[in-house]
Amino acid sequence: MSAVGRPTPRIDAVSRVTGAARYAGDVRLPGMLFARVLRSPHPHARMLAIRTARALALPGVKGIITHQNCRVVWSSGDTRNTRYLFNNPVRFVGDAVAAVAATSVHIAEEALGLIEVEYERLPFLVDAEAALADGAVPIHEGGNLSRTDDGHLVPMAYRRGDVEEGFRASDRIFEDQYSSAHVNNAQMEPRVSVAAWEGDKLTVYASTQGISNCQRDLANDLELKPEQVRVVCEYMGGGFGNKNQCHDFDLMAAVLARETGAPVRLELTRKEDYIAVHGRWPTRQYYKVGVKADGTLQAIQLRGYSAMGPYRKGSGAISGTELYTCPHIETLVHPVYTNTAVAANYRAPAYPQGVFGIESLMDHIAHELKINPLDFRLKNATRKYQDKLPYTSYGLEECMRRGAEAFDWSGRWRAPASDTGIRKRGVGMAMGAFHSRVGRSSAVLRLDGSGRYWLHVGVTDVGTGAKTTMALIAAEALGVPVEKITVISGDTDRCPYSIGESGSRTTNFTGQAVIEAVRDLQRQIAEKGLPTGEGTIVGSATPEPRLEGAARYAFAAHFVEVEVDVELGHLRVLKYVAAHDSGRIVNPLTAVSQVKGGVTMGIGMALHEALHYDPWSGVPLNPGYYGARVMTHLDAPDVEVIFVETEDAHGPYGAKTLGEPPIIPSVAAIANAFFNATGRRIKDLPMSRERILEVLA
Amino acid sequence: MSDLTRRDFLQASAAGIAATALTPAAPGAAAAQAAAPRTRIRVAVNGAELVVDVEDRWTVAELLRDHLQLTGTKIGCDRGECGACTVLLDGSPIYACSYLAVWTSGRGLTTVEGLASGDRLDPLQEAFIAHDAPQCGFCTSGQLMTAKALLASTPQPTADEVRAALTGNLCRCSNYNRYVEAVLAAARTQRGADRGEDPR
């Protein structure tokens, strides 16, 4: 390997450190208008009237859209119900009521205050289980349990074996409950869209993880042909999920631009980003686990509830039980409509909260059975997918062994609550696994007469380094230095279809397409010879690899030492080792950054991040970075990263998934270390100071 | 002049020329602008002296991004929580979203566009690239400017001093380890350069 596996700075790094990188919000078009959105102050209300005349009369206001004059459906805003850009009734604090385009942001903001809305307040629900109670106000017709993919009004179910039989065969039964909070993606870049029409062609500068899907959705919702829509995303300031489609503000900007005949820039405030877009679904998880006296798992049962907000964007799934070998498993998860911010995908959408639950409980069981938590996991960890299919490559056990060695688990582990002082040290660990899919994406590779390669791929590079990864894969396949390759990305007019950067799929899907495009180009060169002068040869590929008879997963094991100040309720991370099997690592430089970042995000989710709702008013209380307590420089520990590079026969050069896995075990690892330090367990996220002091009291 | 292009501005900067009077305006906003009071300020931006008629309500971030086309300064929260908009005012970091443009009158602003000299990157920029500090890159300008001020006052900081100085600069990619590594590496390079050593 000459390119793959070599630590390589990002090919676009200079633009990222000089301010030259152009993000969607940096686009300035002649005559551009600025838009702002009026949002519901009520969690659930019917609008009896909207009066926009005073706002329209304000000099500089060019257009206002509301549910009365705009009936555009936002199809990717809800997978179950018809969700319009503006809905009546409004169903959460932050639901869009109107959008105003004006000649400056100040005027647009002033205009929002001049729009008069009469609301009839309706009963509201902020809690998922309460929303399923008899007599609860239905947020949609048919009640508050959201239907399954195939339209049934039942919880999402997974079953293998017969849990009752498993419980009968068990020596010990453990039952417990855990909960997790709504946590926002909170990418640094505000949500923003710039839309401009030239005749009947729409260009949208979007902050998207998937230009192809964004284009498809915009065309669909605005009743255009896909080729009438161009989506551009040269740089984007953080993804973290649910940006692989179009957003309501993309559509609002496009509609306002059409109505006013001018380009429109619509940027949300940070508060809107918190309350009006989406975050990780909060969960409540009830477990019952049966185990033999020697620690062999017999049965796992989960009943879970996920609060999805009033529109079903995400699955609401709760993952984690897949980490264990166990003959009898039953999970029943209820995605429930609530009058809170919409819940949707955020980095490993179903995982860190579910893994927090199951890994906390398994830690508890190990303790009760007097088995070291590492040994318990080595004994029970998954060896086959759902105890049935082989994994294409399997590094979970090695992640645990190498991680434990680097961490000095055997040296650092002591019985829980061994420290008697004010500051108590403890260690914890947890496992993680994430589906590493293969599938369809495209690449086009052009070789010109000067010997330069132009790689056209529809990636947007959400911060993972995807442009560089694609260049490295092309360089490896071609056997040329990476400097010979120019990557053209982030523009649907210039790039072929791409799966988009969600599900940690880009390296696997689009990377494979790059390899196939190189092969196509090489076949043509073999036939026609190298291009000279003005000549060009273009190779392309849209492979659709499939995997049968096996499952493909990335694995991880995390180890952490914490110190808990039992008087202040403060938890500090002293040491963190993250061992990951993501197959072949294409670019170790950026891969290490991914792991460090994912772990650090997870620590924030474990300790202090949450969007809290006032149960009496249905109002979110702490939107914004400060209120919702994201991690800062002073909070972030050093994270040591280990890659267990298993050989995998699929994916480009055997690369598996990497972007999402690092956040998966981190929350549980911190929780387990807290238990080891104090002998007490926190079962509700986040593990805030109040909660720490509460369980220690 | 009703508008100023980025190219004009950069040429002006490069030439280090004397004051240019500007009345930037959002096109077509004349009616509402009448109601918004303006003040003429003289401010040096990346070394170029400018005279600008600013609306009193404009923040420094607004002046830079919307009226001087210096979009390298980012707005993450627009309320002084995230530090993405950090620029230097007479060498000290400020949150440009929370500082009015009129207050900069008679003073000097440095933005990320002013860090490199020509094609020659600042040692901090070099170190940020080598240590993969920017992931999505949106917080990077702010991290750079705060780090620039830190190294000016504390040329050889410890890791803890770097964390303390940068803690008002959030990074949601949470690449904090890398930022600290990069600043420490830049400090080492700077020390080498001060001693006349070749940093490479």
Description:
The complex is a heterodimer of chains A (697) and B (200). Chain A has 697 residues and is an alpha+beta fold. Chain A is 26% helix and 23% strand. In chain A, a hairpin with a 5-residue loop joins strand 14 and strand 15 (297-307). The relative contact order of chain A is 0.13. The model of chain A has no long low-confidence stretch (mean pLDDT 97). Chain B contains seven helices and six strands, in the order H-E-H-E-E-H-E-E-E-H-H-H-H. In chain B, a hairpin with a 2-residue loop joins strand 4 and strand 5 (92-95). Residues 1-20 and 26-33 of chain B have low confidence and may be disordered. The interface between A and B is large, with 66 and 63 residues.
Strand percentage of chain B, roughly? 5-15%
- What is the H level of CATH, i.e. the homologous superfamily of the largest domain in chain B? Beta-grasp domain
Number of beta-strand segments of chain A: 24
**How helix-rich are the residues of chain A, as a percent range?**
25-40%
Q: Uncertain regions of chain A: pLDDT < 50 for 5+ in a row? A: none
What's the tally of helices of chain B?
A: 7
CATH fold assignment of the largest domain in chain B: Ubiquitin-like (UB roll)
Radius of gyration of chain B: 18 Å
Shape of chain A: globular
Radius of gyration of chain A: 26 Å
Arithmetic mean pLDDT of chain A: 97
Strand fraction of chain A equals 15-25%
Which class of secondary structure composition applies to the elements of chain A? Answer: alpha+beta
CATH C-level label of the largest domain in chain B? Alpha Beta
Largest sheet, spatial ordering of strands of chain B: 1-3-2-6-4-5
Blueprint of the fold:
The complex is a heterodimer of chains A (697) and B (200).
Chain A: H1 13-18, E1 33-39, E2 45-51, H2 53-57, E3 61-66, E4 96-102, H3 105-112, E5 116-121, H4 128-131, E6 156-160, H5 163-168, E7 172-180, E8 183-184, E9 192-198, E10 201-206, H6 211-221, E11 229-232, H7 248-260, E12 264-267, H8 270-276, E13 279-280, E14 283-291, E15 297-307, E16 328-336, H9 351-368, H10 373-380, H11 396-407, H12 409-412, E17 423-435, E18 443-448, E19 453-456, H13 466-478, E20 485-488, H14 506-528, E21 536-541, E22 553-565, E23 570-581, H15 588-607, H16 625-628, E24 640-643, H17 666-678, H18 689-696
Parallel strand pairs in A: 1-12, 10-11, 15-16, 19-20, 23-24
Antiparallel strand pairs in A: 1-4, 2-5, 3-4, 6-16, 7-14, 8-13, 9-10, 9-12, 14-15, 17-22, 18-19, 18-21, 22-23
Chain B: H1 6-15, E1 21-22, H2 30-33, E2 38-45, E3 48-55, H3 60-67, E4 86-89, E5 92-95, E6 108-110, H4 123-130, H5 140-153, H6 159-166, H7 176-194
Parallel strand pairs in B: 1-3, 2-6
Antiparallel strand pairs in B: 2-3, 4-5, 4-6
